[in-house]
Amino acid sequence: MSEQRVRAGRPATVFAVVAALAITAYQFLPDHLWWRTAWQVGVGWAGVAALLAGAHRLPRPERLPWWLFAAGVFSNSTGIAVAHVAEAWYGLIDLPTPADPFFLGLYPACAGGLAVLIRRRDRRSDWAALVDAATITTGFGLLAWVYVISPVNLGDPMDRMAHATQVAYPIGDLLLIAMTTRLLRSGGSRGAPFWWITGSLTAFLIGDSAWVVLDNMGETGEALIGLRWFSTALESVFLVAFVLFGVACLHRGAREVAAPADARPAGLGKGLLALLAGASLIAPAVLAAQTATGQVEDGWSIAACSAVLFLLVVARMALLIRHVERQSDRVRELARSDELTGLPNRRAWNDELPRALERARRNSEPVAVAILDLDRFKQYNDTHGHPAGDQLLKAASAAWHSALRDVDVIARFGGEEFVVLLPAADVGDGLRAMDRALEATPLGQTFSAGLAVWDGVETSDELLKRADAALYAAKAAGRNRVEVAASGQPSSAAA
Q1: DSSP state, 261?
Q2: Strand 447-453 to strand 367-374: parallel, antiparallel, or no bridges (unpaired)?
Q3: Residues 377, 403: one domain?
Q4: Are residues 253 and 398 located together in one domain of the fold?
Q5: Count of CB atoms within 10 A of residue 174's CB?
Q6: How many angstroms separate the CA atoms of 102 and 72, rounded?
Q7: What's the structural domain count of the chain?
Q8: Which of 30, 55, 416, 444 could form a disulfide with 63 if both were Cys (CB 3.0 to 4.6 A apart)?
Q9: Residue 296, SS3 per DSSP
Q10: Tens digits of residue pLDDT in 373-427
Q11: Domain match, 77 and 180 both
Q12: 384 and 487 both lie in a single domain
């Protein structure tokens, strides 16, 4: 690794080490509200500073997603201070508190940053990724509805704002789940900054989910929160989330996170398949859990979620089948096309010639075949180089294709050798076609050709063998000419 690369990676490493020490020290702080509050807010604001410093090193058009992440981290970490001040000085602990807008500000800001990254990484629509994100979000959305949102009585006007605030948190988490899943399904770089961002969002989701579980545990949850080591560890999850954003932005690969790339394949990897399967099984798992208690309270919600998941799975299968069909068509096309010239290759020619002879037999029409070979192509390659030789083959094949009729077929037989199928063409038609092709040959080059007209009896291999013999005769006669093969002694026609 060069000294320049080491220097470029040093800010992220230094910040990560300092932040890790700060989070470790947090575990041993005295049990004093203001000490702990100041430490949490300080770590959060340090993450914001790292985000702004890292974004400043990037070109201005690439700073927006990092600014949005910084806004979300600043809002959430500032909410810690606001919550403690509101509780300690004003006794405000009932929802909604003055801190809730700050805590909730994390979700739209981070979702906006993720949306910008996804849009820049995937310039084309990726419906498969969208369906995957919708499937996972729908599954977890049922959990949020059954265990968080549905139990809230939104009809009580006295507590409506409190309940709406309580519901806003799981909705925000679902938004982050959807955007994080979509980011994971995007194209582009998957270097360290990508995974630091993903890790930060995952930490936020783990922390929020832990609070929801503890709240549903009642007195047991309150007892766990009362344990200093447990609450400290849970708070540290959010501190890690604050820090990882900053590490990602300071990393030398931060610019690559938003770099555009081709859409990712629509295939299903093992990890993604397991995640989709797990999300799809949430509905029956919830139904089984409620059935075991003897009271199904959310039957309609479970049924609606199951229906949506079923439709999403069908849509994903349809997209996957369509992708496989496109890939199969592409493979078939590549198997029958020459990669350099784009003309049909030998495989396609071997399929087409017998069919052409059969059509000529049914219609009682003549058909001619010519084999063309660029003169002194090896010498041209040695003089000008192989790239120039490739350009000559491409230019010559395009020129010959334009000089032939629409019904004629030209294919690359191998190397500098090409074959031409001339339906409904006798000797005169074939010679005129070869004259036009010879005149169109670019870069002052010429070719030798052997022309054979089908006798109505011979096989395709025998017809090609006669054309090939005529080609060798043209080479032997001095090149830059066309030889016509006859059933007996071939005759010469100078081009």
Answers
A1: B
A2: antiparallel
A3: yes
A4: no
A5: 21
A6: 9
A7: 2
A8: 55
A9: coil
A10: 999 998 998 888 889 999 999 999 999 999 999 899 999 988 889 999 999 999 9
A11: yes
A12: yes
In a domain, 413, yes or no: yes
User: Is the distance from CB of 395 to CB of 402 less than 8 angstroms?
Assistant: no
Are 318 and 436 found together in one domain? Answer: no
Nearest Cα to Cα of residue 272 among 189, 206, 182, 208: 182
In terms of domains, do 312 and 364 share one?
no
Q: Which helix (H) or strand (E) holds 71?
A: helix 64-90
Structure-token pair, residue 282:
């949430």
Is residue 335 one of the residues assigned to a domain?
no
Given a contact cutoff of 8 angstroms between Cβ atoms, the answer to whether 367 and 420 are in contact is: no
Per-residue pLDDT band for 490 (boundaries 50, 70, 90) equals very low
**Banded pLDDT at 15 (limits 50, 70, 90):** very high
Residue 433: domain span: 346-493
pTM listed for this prediction: 0.70
Residue 341 inside a domain? The answer is no
Radius of gyration of the chain (CA): 36
Show the CA angle centred on residue 239, arms to residues 136 and 61, nearest 5°. Answer: 70
Could you identify the residue written with the tokens 């009809």? 155
Q: Which two tokens stand for residue 479?
A: 């090149």
The amino acid occupying position 124 is R
Measured from the Cβ of residue 183, the count of other Cβ atoms closer than 10 Å reads 23
∠ Cα 411 417 421 (to 5°): 35
The CA-based angle 430-434-435, given to 5 degrees, is: 115
| Residues 480, 495 contacting (CB under 8 angstroms) | yes
The two structure tokens encoding residue 393: 């083959």
Strands 482-485 and 447-453, by their bridges, are parallel
Tell me the per-residue pLDDT of 354-369, one tens digit each, with 9 for 90 and over: 999 999 999 999 999 9
Task: Answer for the pair 249, 50: CB distance below 8 angstroms, yes or no.
Answer: yes
Q: Which of 330, 362, 386 is the last residue of a domain?
A: 330
Q: Average pLDDT, stretch 59-64?
A: 91
Domain membership flag for residue 209: yes
Cβ neighbour number for residue 36 with a 10 Å cutoff: 18
Helix (H, G, I), strand (E, B) or coil at 410: strand
Above 50 in pLDDT, residue 488? no
Provide the 8-state DSSP code for 486.
-
In 122-227, which residue ranges form alpha helices assigned H by DSSP? 127-144, 160-184, 192-216, 219-226
Buried b (16+ CB within 10 A) or exposed e, 105-121: bbbebbbbbbebbbebb
Least confident piece of the model among 90-104, 215-229, 287-301, 308-322: 215-229
Residue 269 shares a structural domain with residue 411: no
